[in-house]
Amino acid sequence: MTQPKVSIVVPSRGGAARLPYLFEALGAQTDPSWEAIVVIDGDTDGSAKVVEAARDELPVTAIVFPENRGRSAALNAGFAAARGDVLIRCDDDLRPAPNYVAASTARHADGVARGVIGLVRNVFPETPYARAYGSSRDVRFREDAYQLPAERRWRHWCGNVSVSRHTYDRVGEYDTNFRAYGWEDVDWGYRLSRAGVEVVFAPELETEHHVAAVTTEIRVKRAFYSGAAKQTFAAKHGTAVLGATMPGTGLWGKLVSRTAEKNGLDSLLRKARMADGALDRMTRWSAEKRVAWLVESAALSGELHPEQVANDV
Predict the structure, then answer these.
(1) pTM for this model (two decimals)
(2) What is the longest distance spanned by two Cα atoms in the chain?
(3) How far apart are CA 18 and CA 308, in angstroms?
(4) How many independent structural domains does the chain possess?
(5) What does each C-alpha distance from 106 to 141, 163, 313 come to in angstroms?
(6) Would you tell me which of 36, 98, 102, 220 could form a disulfide with 8, CB atoms 3.0–4.6 Å apart?
(7) Are 158 and 23 within one domain?
(8) Looking at residue 226, what is its pLDDT?
(9) Domain match, 235 and 133 both
């Protein structure tokens, strides 16, 4: 079997409907020297059969966990099995452009150790959440990210990144203490930067992301879980590396803080469902502020109430 230049590791859970689109995009690559390793974190929907069906036409293989072990464990298993010199993490809801493998290879061709981030362009269905908040915040997110100084780029280590095999081995595996949703990637990005490796953005590797958070309710739950995972990061590395992340002392900050203190996950999800039913009847400004209030409150509430998070995600 020919040694691929690039190994694409895809952590997946419940991805049977998403994987065919990813495989279609990978099948259109201009550089054929790649393999994809799909690590199925507990097969809940027949994802293994989807990978098996693609094997006749594409260099894809599956590693199937018998039960949910978390994204970090899935990533570690995939990278351990990878044979390429360039290692890409690619989430199963991405749809890379045809130059994805070629552009990733080019970013590592000079042999200099670096971490490469391709930001994602979220693709939303037409929902009240997308109209009120998701689409505009997505654009703002990328604009702000590209303005970051070099020493802060690690905060955006995500589901569309690459390093050389040597650099991965130097930093080590993803931390399995990040068991539920979020922050296993930020932790790895921080460790990469702390090892003295330059982290760069690659605009040519921006990739479509068919986002799962299509309602305020889903986005609030993810914000809550991310807030809880942030506590794991802070316990490991300290809070100073994150800079000022708590709400300010103005009226907005006080509103977010009070909401987070008084509401746990269930209460915030109820408020989010109510918001989803009302957003299209509100002015655009009011609708965006309603979602922002709930998302920011949920993130802080997750920090305050991490015991409410379930691991099976």
Answers:
(1) 0.94
(2) 62
(3) 29
(4) 2
(5) 26, 12, 35
(6) 36
(7) yes
(8) 94
(9) no
